[in-house]
Amino acid sequence: MSCSLFEFCRLQELKTVKDYLFQSQKTEVEEEKPQTDELTWDTSDWESAWDNDVKEEENAATPSSTAEDGPQQTAPGWLQNCIVALSPCSDLLVIAREQKAVFLSAKWRTDDGGREEMTLAVSWSGILSEEGESVSSAICIPLASQKRS
């Protein structure tokens, strides 16, 4: 049995979305990546995810003080800690966490080769709920207009 993944759009400003949703865990220190002349894959996000389960088990066994550790870094699987909803037409994506949400809407652009491709760009971001409440789910439902033209 096999499967294939189909790319239907690209996300713009994904780092901006991540930084907005995880502002409380943002750190000033960034890892320096060695620069090479050759093109290489950036595997820093997903290689550490394989070992993440083992590290979580070790951390659960030993108590730690989060207040004294200083600012926390966002985990490699940051999107798994968010609420994500995609509209049936794939023209709206909502990513929410705690009280914050980011809405990305479809925009068509032409690449250098003259092909059109759909990208999802941030159309709105902000705080959705009252203090003490948090987003627990999201859904994108298409609505049909009753106006006649």
UniProtKB/TrEMBL annotation:
Q: According to the UniProt entry, which residue ranges have a biased composition of type Acidic residues?
A: 44-56
Q: Where is the composition biased (Polar residues)?
A: 61-73
Q: Tell me where the signal peptide lies.
A: none
Where would I find the Rab3-GAP regulatory subunit N-terminal domain in this sequence?
78-146
User: Which domain of life, per UniProt?
Assistant: Eukaryota
Q: Where is this region: Disordered?
A: 26-73
Return the protein name: Rab3-GAP regulatory subunit N-terminal domain-containing protein
